[in-house]
Structure formats: C-alpha cells, structure tokens
Design a protein that fits this description.
The chain has about 130 residues and is an alpha+beta fold. It contains 2 helices and 6 strands, in the order βββαβαββ. It has a single domain, classed as RutC-like (60s Ribosomal Protein L30, Chain: A), CATH 3.30.1330.40. The chain is globular.
C-alpha cells in the first residue's frame, strides 16, 4: 500500500491518509470544503462542491492522475435538496466523463460542511 499525500489539498483531520494506492487503484478519503491551508471556505453548496473537487483533483494529481481516471465517486450531502446544484458543479469538473456514483443524504458532516466526496480511481488510465 502506498500513501498518497499532497500539500495542495487539506491535510487529514484525523488518523487517516488523503488517499492510498493499492495495486494501481487509488482510494481517496472524503474531501470537504477546506482550503489546502485547512480553512473552511465561505459560501454555499456550489462553492463548497468546487473546493471539494479541487481537493480531489489535487490528490489525484499527486498520484499521477486526473478526474478522468475516476472509476467511482460517493457524494455525501447534508441536504438532499442540494442535489441539483451539486450535479451542476460536478458536471463542470467531469465533463463527458461519467464515473459510477452514489449519493447519500447524511445527518451531519465534519465541520458542519454541506458536501463531502470521495473517489476510487486508476491513475494514468483516463477511462
């Protein structure tokens, strides 16, 4: 197992890694709307989703990949009413690439954020 870490995404806020790579597959931890410096960004779910996807992109880049290498994502929402807005921002980042995805409504998320996303990817393959 290879630990993936970058200063271009927020450091883990607990005893876990930003991502790990096992046999060429990257498993990311959930990313929330923190800057690489660890500050929670201002704004609503659209701004938070952009920051989350920027963070995921940075983790993927550290592993030699891009969002086009993503196989599956899981989106955790504090309010399923934000689903459409998150979809719009998600589409901006993924374009025509359509990885598998699950979206789950949860009661609360770390630091009371509105959205958290993790992914599974195969860096360098561009699916």
């Amino acid at each position: 197992m290879q630990i993936i870490a970058t200063e271009n995404a927020p450091q883990a806020i607990g005893p876990y890694s930003q991502a790990v790579m096992v046999e060429g597959i990257l498993y990311s931890s959930g990313q929330i709307a923190l800057t690489p410096e660890g500050e929670l960004i201002d704004g609503g779910v659209a701004e938070q989703t952009r920051q989350v996807l920027n963070n995921l992109s940075a983790v993927l880049e550290a592993a030699g990949g891009t969002l086009n290498d993503v196989i599956k994502t899981t989106i955790f929402l504090a309010d399923m009413g934000d689903f459409a807005v998150v979809n719009e921002v998600y589409a901006e980042f993924f374009g025509d690439h359509r990885p598998a995805r699950s979206t789950v409504a949860v009661k609360t998320l770390p630091k009371e954020v509105l959205v958290e996303i993790d992914c599974i990817a195969k860096p360098g393959v561009s699916l």
